[in-house]
Specification:
Strand order of the largest sheet: 2-1-3-4-5
Largest sheet: 5 strands, parallel
Structural class: alpha/beta
Shape: globular
Helix content: 40-55%
Bound molecules: calcium ion
Order of helices and strands: EHEHEHEHEHEEEEHHHEE
Number of strands: 11
Oligomer: single chain
CATH class of the largest domain: Alpha Beta
Number of domains: 2
Length: about 230
């Protein structure tokens, strides 16, 4: 089945270009032109990925992202026009998976969409081959590679697909330090487009959910100047 992309963008010209290029790549496209319409489409049309502009009438992209995240882990790429917005996306616990700044190159945007959509779909087929090692247990944390769940003290954690991919990558290779570049390449599947700060933000979000004391993490540990590792 074709992957469905929801484009939330009030500038008709940009929405049209995105619509055209996405369809050319074989995606099904739904466009929404303000935040309220976008939020409704996000919940009703069940897209496989959302491209979400920040400055929108009625409800801005930050609000839309937060609302969508209450019920869905769909990959979200924010479109931003200004550096202040980037700081806000990175600084807030919005739950966006990625962002891209305007003006963007269509090629770069398509590469990111492809990486995010593929990631959304990939893990299931991949883990079904692993029959014996479906569960990774680290004290009170259990990572189930088949059901793609992580639980802490028996309670399931609500993780986005990206957060799950990151913990899976780190926890299947415990006590090994990975640089942010290596994580970007292996978890985000970007070769050189990504902003390394998105790695830090995702690590921070994971810690908030996973660690007893996120300010003093004992599972996802920082090795200064080297990167991150999962301590078993
Ligand atoms: Ca706009």
């Amino acid at each position: 089945m074709d992957k469905k992309i929801l484009v939330v963008e009030d500038e008709k010209a940009i929405a049209d270009i995105l619509d055209f290029n996405l369809k050319k790549e074989g995606y099904t496209v739904v466009c929404a032109y303000d935040g309220e319409e976008g939020l409704r489409a996000a919940l009703e049309d069940k897209p496989d990925l959302i491209l979400l502009d920040v400055m929108l009438p009625k409800l801005d992209g930050f609000e839309v992202c937060k609302s969508v995240r209450k019920t869905s882990n769909v990959p979200i790429i924010m479109l931003t026009a200004r550096e202040e917005e980037v700081d806000k996306i990175l600084g807030l616990e919005l739950g966006a998976d990625d962002y891209i700044t305007k003006p963007f190159s269509m090629r770069e945007l398509m590469a990111r969409i492809k990486a995010n959509v593929r990631r959304g779909a990939a893990p299931v087929a991949e883990v079904q081959e692993q029959s014996d090692e479906n569960r990774l247990v680290f004290g009170n944390i259990v990572i189930n590679l088949r059901s793609l769940d992580v639980s802490k003290n028996g309670t399931k954690l609500e993780l986005t697909p990206r957060e799950f991919d990151l913990i899976k990558f780190l926890a299947t290779q415990p006590n090994q330090v990975f640089s942010r570049e290596v994580l970007m390449e292996n978890v985000w599947k970007y070769d050189y487009y990504g902003d390394l700060r998105t790695v830090d933000v995702t690590v921070r979000r994971l810690r908030e959910k996973l660690e007893d004391d996120p300010a003093n993490p004992v599972r996802i540990v920082t090795r200064r100047g080297a990167g991150y590792m999962f301590a078993d």
